[in-house]
Design brief:
The chain is an alpha+beta fold. The chain has 2 helices and 4 strands, in the order βαβββα. The protein has a two-stranded parallel ribbon. A two-stranded antiparallel ribbon has the order 3-4.
Length: 71
Amino acid sequence: MPVINVKMTHEDGGATKEQKEALVKGITELFANTFNGRGASSAVVIIEELNTDNYGIGGKTVTQIRSESKK
């Protein structure tokens, strides 16, 4: 059973339910097409939305970096 993890930032309210459904469908179809139809019925897609306060680059949170770039 394939397990596919997607991590994306949660910004501006995050992805909608419809966007997540389309993402899950699209990723599952891509996986199945890539592997000749195998795994489509058992593919697990996990979407994690990360708050920009919860990860950083170069010693600053992404929230800090983005607020500095808007100045």
